[in-house]
Amino acid sequence: MNVRRLLVLLFLLLRAVDSSFASETPEAANPFPVGENLTYRIYWGVIPVGETIITTDWVEEGGRRLIRIRLRTHTNKWMDRIHKIDDDVISVVEPGTLLPVRSVELVHDKDRNAEETTTFDHANRVAYWQSTLDGRTSNYVIEADTREIVSFLYFMRTKKLKPGEEALVTVAAYQTLHQMRLHAESVVDVDLAKYGSIPCLVVRPEAVNASLFARKAPQLAWVSRDARKLVAKMDAKVVVGTVHVVLYDVEGPGDDFWVTKR
User: Fold this and answer.
1) What 8-state DSSP symbol labels residue 1?
2) Which H or E run includes 86?
3) Strand runs labelled E in 62-165
4) Band (146; pLDDT cuts 50, 70, 90)
5) Residue 22 reports pLDDT greater than 90
6) pTM of the complete model
7) Residue ranges making up the domain that contains 36
8) 191 near 47, Cβ under 8 Å?
9) Total structural domains in the chain?
10) Nearest CA-CA partner of 225 in 250, 202, 249
11) Mean pLDDT, to the nearest integer, of 56-78?
12) Which of 65, 98, 109, 191 could pair with 155 in a Cys bridge, judged by C-beta atoms 3.0 to 4.6 Å apart?
């Protein structure tokens, strides 16, 4: 059961978009409050197996003020005996456009051991990938607005998808570009332990091709209908059973109910 890859796909796929996302201007405001911390609890059926924490903060690099988005996933002590996961995925992005400057994956679990960095040259439309474990390198062509998984997650938070609509999304992952189609279905209420009943849009991802990346997509997700457009819940099939990822806590700046209702 590769929970980490399912989680990464979750945070790619479920920030609902419309077909006009490529026309965003560099002056666009950040679609989320920097300093926001999100905690998701992970269940294998009804059994708690771990959690993912996503944080954002400001960093200074080369005289530029950039945003760092960090996604950390770890299993609990019970799950460690079966399949330990302790992963760290970081994306450093430009404010406004949220185009990635650099992404770093530190993955150490049963299925995969990786320390990889990808640097994005948007002017020349090239991404440079390097593994610090074995020294391998490669380059691949990107599009002008290409984003990797984590930066794509946050960029999508400005977008809207209504029931009955579809959207095609492309993301850089595993040294190539991948496409998924999102189907927006109905609006339903999702019960969260700290927040009560939250109206959410049900989104069903569909693979455009048969890539390994696409085949590991979640089956269904529930995206909150408020201004933050948070993933409230996600279900994904694994070899044995179903993994559920559920939003548990929201911290950081803001005065909406996500922060005040805690």
Assistant:
1) -
2) strand 86-93
3) 64-75, 86-93, 100-108, 113-121, 126-131, 137-141
4) confident
5) no
6) 0.83
7) 3-260
8) no
9) 1
10) 202
11) 92
12) 98
